Amino acid sequence: MNYKPYLIFLSFITLGLIVFSVASFGLYPILSVDGSFVSARTFWKNLKAGSIYYNNLIRNVDGIGREASTLSSTDLEISVLTQLVENKLIAKELKKEIDKNLNLLVQSKIKRFNEDLKFEEIAKTLYGLKPRDFEK
């Protein structure tokens, strides 16, 4: 029996499922910074946090509402992309400078913030994020 058509069909189905999964989870790269990729998932997560922060800033700070409300969604997206590029470049330089101690340094900072009981509430209110999201 000739199995070649079945294998080709199964290969196409498998490839389609892989592409669908990558696209659904936002794992495809949208930006490359010095060979390091930024996924769509990371962008959307940061855009959501930035949007929540911006909306909370407008709502909660007196006198800022009218002037700051002119920020468009495109401006916010550009700001998030700029921040992601800067973060990648800073992380790369930090890794060069304090390669072995970087994880310990980050963990000590996060541990110090986690000891503060209001940190979780502040993180959720300002950015809509959980404290464990800062570890990433």
Description:
The longest helix is centred in the middle third of the chain and has 25 residues, at 73-97. This protein has helices at residues 4-24, 40-60, 65-68, 73-97, 102-115, 119-127, 131-135; strands spanning 29-33, 36-39. It is 73% helix and 7% strand. The chain is extended. It starts with a helix and ends with a helix. By secondary structure, it is mostly helical.
Give a quick rundown of the structure.
This protein has 136 residues and is mainly alpha-helical. Helices cover 73% and strands 7% of the residues.
Distance between the terminal alpha carbons, to the nearest Å? 52 Å
The class by helix and strand makeup works out as: mainly alpha
Overall geometry:
extended
Radius of gyration, Cα only, in angstroms?
Answer: 21 Å
The count of strands amounts to 2
Low-pLDDT runs: none
> Order of helices and strands, N to C?
HEEHHHHHH
Instruction: Enumerate the strands of the largest sheet in spatial order, edge to edge or round the barrel.
Output: 1-2
Percent helix: over 70%
Strand content: 5-15%
Report the sheet with the most strands, covering strand number, pairing sense and barrel closure.
2 strands, antiparallel
Number of helices: 7
* Mean model confidence by pLDDT: 82
